[in-house]
Input
Amino acid sequence: MTAFARLMSGAALAATLAGTAPALWAETPANMLVVANRIDDITTLDPAETFEFAGGDVLRNVYGRLVNFDPLDFEAGYQPDLAESWEVSEDGRTITFTMREGVSFVSGNPVTAEDAEFSLRRAVLLNLTPSFILTQFGFTPENIEETIKADGNKLVITTDKAYATSFVLNCLTATIGSIVDKTTVMAHEVDGDMGHDWLKTNSAGSGAYSLVAWKPNESVTLQANPDFYQGTPAMQRVIVRHIAESATQRLLLERGDVDVARNLNPEDVQGITGAEGIKIQEELKGYLMYASFNQKIPELAKPEVLEAFKHLVDYDGMVNSFLKGQWTVQQNFLPQSYLGAVKDNPFSLDVEKAKALLAEAGVDGLELTIGVRDVQERLEIAQSMQNTFAQAGVKLNIEVGTGKQVLAKYRARDLDVYLGTWGPDYADPQTNASTFAYNPDNSDEAQNGGILAWRNAWDAGGLTEMTEAAVAERDTARRAEMYHEIQTRFREISPFAIMFQNIEQDGVRENVQNFTTGLAVSDASYWKVTK
Output
């Protein structure tokens, strides 16, 4: 047994996690990638069910999809994957995919249109958490035999109405769009579950890797697929180890025990910056930090007050101090790297301007409560806002709770002000436009808790119709322009002060090349990695 294998065994692994074992080698094997990451959110590895970050990383490397992203060129948008081409009907409702010939699953079974049909139908029939990404196009258990069907080497899908082709294809890049091996999956069916129980801990894909083992709260091990149609990956094995603490991740990275550390806090990033053999790699992710203001409170519904509040946030001061490079200023609801994203950030801390706007609105001595989850960076942001709001005569009380407690009040429209994050559900601008700038029914009875505009009792100020038009626009360039227009109006009138976009700062060994966490639109990719 090699030194590396001994260290990965039980007793030695425990010693490593404690940070007490002496270094046994200088680096990981040349054909192996070892990643330190928090993976305790994984609950299943069935692509019809997975909706967690770490699980998405795994399945990105295990399954092909009809269309996908190039790990080295995300800006190019979706690209052909298991479908080599597609055609759209004149009415915009039907997309016919031609499957790529000569591609096999890890089992050796050929990838066919029938597998694609089965995979998408299966996701609709199981109706698990991420199924809405497909069912929003009108697919139901009752109609899938007509709306999702194989025809020779072609897969034909028909939506309930015409949507932007880019919208449909972007959604098919999501994890739920993974194509599974029908023969293998159905061989493990139990009581009509379509292989669901088996796929929780096994894989049946055609991707660059197959699942060797998932040990909850410990590790995920992937083995390279030698017959991957894009070529055998250089990293023959990928091990993702659950290391929760930033300090431990840093130690393992410095010793060469891991190639990548993905959950470093700002202090540990600073501590290893410039260290020999280590580089800091930054990628913009899709998470946004924002504050929002309940429109049921009369004072908060005044346009001058909303504008004043957007000038009472110390954007630059925070990103240059305690946020320390892990957030960047972004004042728009689409993250950078999304279709239609803009870089216009017109607001800055201006207390005097805010005072004048509040006076113009006739608001004086206002007292509000901001709900905040008990997370250090959010508490610090709330405290900064409390300070700057006070300079304009607004008292901002901070109410701290668990995520569950704060979200329950927010979803019930019971918070004056909310501070929190939002992450996209799929790689299309509709994912954020449909919640920030869309609210077809603002009544309390609507109970549209999944729509952020509704949570803040905001009728979206005419943006609902603009959002509906944008998601149906088939010209992609024009569609992007429409989101530019929506965001310009949104910044002016919305009760949202969007502040920051997250930056993931990873510590990476210098010999590791082409590692990416997927930017804002995808998940981590391993098959392009070399050493």
